[in-house]
């Protein structure tokens, strides 16, 4: 299994890139969102990968974070969702958006992805709801290209942007709420609703506790 690829970005197409790893070119399919965040041709790049094995084809799919990779794996397990639909969902919502939609049972958000109808979106929201807490608790592990060494004769490109680090507050808050005795599914839904990109762990916990408080 190829779990991570690090090398030089040779070229990009509409839905895939070619990464040169010490003279061997790997064709890696990525979502629109991941594609937009990649560096320019000739620059260092690293992606987590998942290998799809079929009788007639081997396909690599690339992701900037372990959360994105895990959601791809889980989405692919839902009847009616193939690799193309999974990447469409991740491209439309991003891994954090998928976590929120699944935790809240918001199939309407999933259905906004190209090629994903209401029935499939509802099936995914129902089947994966109990998976959301574990994925959200994985935190913000983002693949790092800083350790990729490019030979001196590599064509110079524009300066590479550092990969944005995901907010770790989501996983930390979820873990804290579960430790307090809340059901993982309830805690995940509350954290998803309370979470913002700038939130600290304490802010998410406090907001989630208010949402979990008995009504009436």
Automatic annotation (TrEMBL):
InterPro entries: DNA_helicase_Holl-junc_RuvA_I, NA-bd_OB-fold, RuvA, RuvA_2-like, RuvA_C, RuvA_C_sf. The keyword Translocase does not apply. Residues 169-213 form the Holliday junction DNA helicase RuvA C-terminal domain. Residues 1-64 are annotated as: Domain I. Keywords: ATP-binding, Cytoplasm, DNA damage, DNA recombination, DNA repair, DNA-binding, Helicase, Hydrolase, Nucleotide-binding. GO terms for molecular function: ATP binding; four-way junction DNA binding; four-way junction helicase activity. GO terms for cellular component: cytoplasm; Holliday junction helicase complex; Holliday junction resolvase complex. Residues 164-216 are annotated as: Domain III. Residues 1-62 form the DNA helicase Holliday junction RuvA type domain. The keyword Cytoplasm applies. It comes from the Bacteria. One of its GO terms (biological process) is DNA repair. Its main location: cytoplasm. It is found in: Cytoplasm. Pfam families: HHH_5, RuvA_C, RuvA_N. Homotetramer. Forms an RuvA(8)-RuvB(12)-Holliday junction (HJ) complex. HJ DNA is sandwiched between 2 RuvA tetramers; dsDNA enters through RuvA and exits via RuvB. An RuvB hexamer assembles on each DNA strand where it exits the tetramer. Each RuvB hexamer is contacted by two RuvA subunits (via domain III) on 2 adjacent RuvB subunits; this complex drives branch migration. In the full resolvosome a probable DNA-RuvA(4)-RuvB(12)-RuvC(2) complex forms which resolves the HJ. Has three domains with a flexible linker between the domains II and III and assumes an 'L' shape. Domain III is highly mobile and contacts RuvB. The RuvA-RuvB-RuvC complex processes Holliday junction (HJ) DNA during genetic recombination and DNA repair, while the RuvA-RuvB complex plays an important role in the rescue of blocked DNA replication forks via replication fork reversal (RFR). RuvA specifically binds to HJ cruciform DNA, conferring on it an open structure. The RuvB hexamer acts as an ATP-dependent pump, pulling dsDNA into and through the RuvAB complex. HJ branch migration allows RuvC to scan DNA until it finds its consensus sequence, where it cleaves and resolves the cruciform DNA. This is Holliday junction branch migration complex subunit RuvA. It comes from Loktanella atrilutea. The gene is ruvA.
